[in-house]
Amino acid sequence: MNQQLCLGFYKTKPLWVNEQFGVTQFEFPDINFNNFQASPIPERLRLGHKMEHVFEQFIEFSNEWELLAKNLLVDKGNVRVGELDFLVRHEFSKISYHIELAYKFYIINPEITEPIHRLMGPNRRDMFYTKLDKLKNKQFPLLFNEELHEELKSIQLNLDTVQQQACFKAQLFSLYGTSSTSIRPLNKNCIEGRWIRFNDFNTTEFNKWEYYLPFKQEWVMAPSENRGYVSHYNILLDINLRMLQEKAPMLWIKKPDGILEKLFVVWW
Length: 268
Prior knowledge:
DUF1853, 2 domains, DUF1853 family protein
């Protein structure tokens, strides 16, 4: 499962390419999966923390990068003000980087005009534009906090030359039934599936397919046939429960022709 999780992370596209919004996207190193073997990742971690383990494994596997520090805590007195995700150094250029990692699942709401405001978590509690604002105005400035100066000196990190980038990967989901959705300047190759409201999913149109309810860790992966798919009627029992809890689950759809797709069902 950890190998599949790592592969899913690696294949997920960056939400933008090069520089957008004043933030440069980290150019991920090439990984040869014939030689890569995933290390164990603690099961009880939240998905975001598992992604940090995956990123760390890839950095350490690559001969291009040296890991200087990870999850570097920033405290002012007795108050914790944040943490830095990763400090790395490029082995050939010797340039050091502060990398903030994000791995997100966003639905695209076509009712909103501005592309960066269209992206939201399936439960509408996680907005891309607020994450971007936090990244630029809170997470990046932490590097220059006085409390870190001595620690940064110990790893020979020069604040005058360090570069700050984001490794921001995302899976995007367009509204079911829409033909195309413009998300410029974001990366349209991030679109991995569709989303639908429960009342629209609870119709006879969806009776012809089979469904699997993946665990959160499986959201990262490509859908697989080797799962316990059930009928639309049976999956509705599980979906109903999650609607009552105001949780938007992902489904894998298996069609008669063998096509596999991802679909979020939202409660709102």
